[in-house]
Amino acid sequence: MEDVYNLIQERNARETLPFLSIHSSNAFLRSHVDTLQDRCESLERQYLDQQQLVAEQAQAIEVNTNNAPAKNEARLREKNAKLQEDLNRRLQDEVKSTAEAAEVSKELSVLKEEKAAQDATISKLGMEVTRCNDVIAHLQSEMDDSKTLARLAEKQVDGLKDAIRSLQEENDETTKLNKRLVDEAVAVKEKMAEQFNNMNDTIETLQKEANMLRSYVKTGKGSGGGWFGLRRGDKKITAATAAADAESSIDSDDSQPKRQWGATVSAVLPSQPLFTIKAHKDDTICVRYDGTNLNRVATASSDATVKVFDTSNGHLEATFSAGGRQPLIGVDIGGDIVCGCGADKTCRVWNQQTKRMIHQLAGHSQKITCVRLFPGEKSVITGSADRSIRIWDIARHIYTQTTTLRHSSTSNCCDVSGETQSIVSGHLDGGLRCWDVRTGDRVLDIPLLHDVGVTSVQWKPGNHHEILTNGRDSTLKVVDARTSSVVHSFSDPGFRTLTNHASSSFSPDGSYVAAGSGDNGIIFVWNVTKGELEKQLSAHQCGVAGIAWGMGGTNGQQVATIDKSGYLTLW
Length: 571
Hints:
Blueprint: H1 2-16, H2 20-63, H3 70-223, H4 235-254, E1 275-278, E2 284-289, E3 296-301, E4 305-310, E5 316-321, E6 328-334, E7 337-342, E8 346-351, E9 356-362, E10 368-373, E11 379-384, E12 388-393, E13 400-406, E14 411-417, E15 422-427, E16 432-436, E17 442-446, E18 454-459, E19 466-471, E20 476-480, E21 485-490, E22 504-506, E23 512-516, E24 522-527, E25 532-538, E26 544-549, E27 559-563, E28 567-570
Antiparallel strand pairs: 1-28, 2-3, 3-4, 4-5, 6-7, 7-8, 8-9, 10-11, 11-12, 12-13, 14-15, 15-16, 16-17, 18-19, 19-20, 20-21, 22-23, 23-24, 24-25, 26-27, 27-28
Helix pairs in contact: 1-3, 2-3, 3-4
């Protein structure tokens, strides 16, 4: 505020200083005018006196005209002429003085007007100074108030600092408590998982014993003897038989089907629909056969469910829900493991026997577009619109992400080769890429394989260097990964690929490739060796969304197709 006051004082001094000379000149002119007025008055008095003197002299001349001598008259005449000249001179001087007085008066009036304007300006400046003084006083008052508020704010800040310090201490304590609780929860969960695994082992043991007891019961019915068909007291035979049966039951468990990666099975060409099933209420997006060659096929749909059907009779075995309205885009099944991925950025892993979800794989920042199980069903690969492919270890009760593969385009589809530990992925930019799982390196990159996006990829069964691709350009191509060249190309005027996830498939022996058209529902089967169209099949009333060609299981059923209205057809 003092700076403002000083600035106003400087401004007043700066604006008043130019008028000092005007005030001094005004005072000088006033004194000069007064002097001229006095002189004018004096000249007027002298003029009157001269006129009076002239009148007296003229009268005296008239009186003495007849009596005075002519010499005196001449003298008087000369004196009168001198007086007349003096009078004229004085009159001229008076006229000049009057003119000068008029000019001075005019200048005086101008100066008076200037003085009036200056007085008005001075008055305004005085009012401005008064207003500025009021403003200064107001600002000074506000500054005092601001100082008071600042002191109060400092006190409040100190109080807030103390509060923040106490909250930080509480937060640290809460964090420690939370960490301890998390550790305890993890420990409890691990303990429960261990107990659960022990219970599973116990259940398996009990199932083996139950199978053994059933075999004893069957034996007992034929012999009509004592317990389990044996004589009472024949303990040695019972023990030996029990050991033999237990060993046979273990052998039977070991003989359960394992995932058959790359196994060569003869192909059975589809001819007519075996079962037509309304699998989902919404459009079905993906279909996959069980990789362990069990009689199962799984479907994923926009209704956020995965369903598993028995290929022997078309009956529904299980339904797994994602618990929301986000569509499921990809599915894979192998033994007791079922995987489903979708638009909610997660991939769910269920147990086929318990019908429970055992993992929910979270880590992608965009929707997951494809999923595949590794051999042994202990690892899962997922591809996402966030331009990454991730590998997850699901062997333990707590999953872990082991590898992340980065690329420059959304991966619409992927497949894994169990023998070479290689991953192939098809992308939205029309490119095909192969990856080494062990090193995480990209070992093959074929850009623009298709004019638009790649919708499906598959390693050729029994051949670990040829890859089948389907593209949005409505063309199927077989690519040799060793030479990065297209070996075969298949298309047809009636065949169209209309979605980013439309699938195609090799036959189990690699002799044929098949795909469904997205507009007319026709199934096309091409002969790979001849490079020509082998067969066309029509059973769907709308466009085909996906196709799978399995190994046949125990019943020989190999081909499954799904359409956009939710129907599943087993051929």
